[in-house]
Amino acid sequence: MKTIQTVLEKNYGFDSFRPGQQQIIEAIMNKKDVLAIMPTGGGKSLCYQIPAICMEGTSLVVSPLISLMKDQVDTLQAMGVRAGYINSQMDKSSYHDTMNKAMFGYYDLLYIAPERLDSEHFMNVIQNMKINLIAVDEAHCISQWGQDFRPSYRNIPQLREAFDYPVPFAAFTATATTQVKHDINKQLCLQNPHQYVASFDRPNLYFSVIPTKKKSTDLLKYINNSDSAIIYCNTRKNVETVYHSLVKKRFSVTYYHAGIPADERTKNQEDFIYDRKSIMVATNAFGMGIDKSNVRKVIHYNMPLDMESYYQEAGRAGRDGAPSEAILLYSSQDIITNTFLIEQGNQPHAKDKLNRMISYCKTGKCLRSYILGYFDEVPSWQKCEHCSNCDGNTETMDVTVESQKILSCIYRMNQRFGTGMVTDVLRGKNNERIRSLNFNQLSTHGIMSDYNDNTIKDIISLLISEGFLSLSGDKYPILTFTTKTNQLLKAEVTLSMTRKIVEDVRKSSKK
Ligand code: ADP
């Protein structure tokens, strides 16, 4: 049997393992289940490929991305590894050819899309093969809490019963919050797995959130023709608008979205990858599986729907380890658009996730700690000094006292009203409705008369997105307390907000 060190050196040409890799490989070879959470580019593939090469029999790799499957298999074949794939896009004769080879135990690795497990024929064939590992790539797809839930991933657990000998399961993902991790463990019935969670920190990335009212103008401050940059927009239409405006200004720019004809799309992608064009304007269709290491900036022209997508996209900056930036241009219109989008879809938990994304844009806390906290990592610092909330460029404002005033008012109004009414009482409005409810008698009536409507509403929305208030109700949304509310009322925790937002809001309300 080949040793893992020899394979690493001879097949891959690397001299040492990255953190976590060797332990994962050894666990698999000892027939233990594995759950590995490593950032994109962390080196997950090698963790299941090396055991597959070293062990007798065939390893099945379940992967959702048909386009990447072929690339991976080509690379492995070029390294002299016996790898194949089966997906819905291949013709009949290649399918039969691959299945025949598989049956005779030709492959070290066989990549399949999860839909394949629906096929009785396929299940019959693999039951007669010697399977030594089920590797589940992008394992978060099994969870409804993950950002791209794939119902067909729920077929994977049936492989548990398919063999009358023990087969280890190894799950890999780049994005897993506690809920997703828990779900992967449960759905895949992982038995006392070896767990490896790599740090998600990207020390060479500078994070910033830029509140702006004029994105098209502000964008120009962050781009130039010598640095490679990706600008992500939320719609194809926005991609085209931004692209055309940059062409007019003579930027070296190209664009990408799923509506562009395939050959043009490939050309644009290559222009960017081979540095013929510096700037790529794209929807989130661009980037998956693209390994361009010298991207200096990832700019989000619109707020993404959740932190997982944001961090994955932002993480495409600075793969080479050199200083790079992740910039999010944020306007309150983004919240309106995203809330609308989410209400159109029926993704469970989408609202919660959007709230966390909104908090990221409004928080006055260190942005890196916010991100790491989101992925359940406890950072070793309070302030990183390397994000727009830490380096003194954006002032933050403590809004703990304001929050307490708002919460007290909601309490006195018996937690039965929405944002508009609460704001009116806090500002001290004295209309008929307020008088008929006796709210003009409350001690909190008018305690925020020196703030404008938008500031109060902004703080309320931060309270909601940070989980200190919940918005519920059948007919119209009502603000109610959560289990966390008391912590803020007792000042056991504090809340802060970027001052820029507050100032902008103040100015706009004076008009
Ligand atoms: P992931 O699947 O986690 O996104 P990959 O498996 O594609 O990451 O690995 C990312 C890059 O790192 C690849 O180019 C791979 O060859 C390289 N790599 C992985 N492990 C090592 C190692 N031990 N030494 C050097 N390079 C490595």
Automatic annotation (TrEMBL):
All copies of domain Helicase ATP-binding, residue ranges: 25-194
Organism: Jeotgalibaca ciconiae
Catalytic activities: Couples ATP hydrolysis with the unwinding of duplex DNA by translocating in the 3'-5' direction
Cleavable signal peptide: none
GO molecular function: 3'-5' DNA helicase activity; ATP binding; DNA binding; four-way junction helicase activity; hydrolase activity; metal ion binding
Family in the record: Belongs to the helicase family. RecQ subfamily.
Cofactor(s) demanded: Zn(2+); Mg(2+)
Keywords, sorted A to Z: ATP-binding, DNA damage, DNA recombination, DNA repair, DNA-binding, Helicase, Hydrolase, Isomerase, Metal-binding, Nucleotide-binding, Zinc
Annotated Helicase C-terminal domain residues: 215-386
Domain of life of the organism encoding this protein: Bacteria
GO BP, sorted A to Z: DNA recombination; DNA repair; DNA replication; SOS response
Signal recorded as keyword: no
One GO CC annotation: bacterial nucleoid
Protein name as it appears in the record: DNA helicase RecQ
EC code: 5.6.2.4
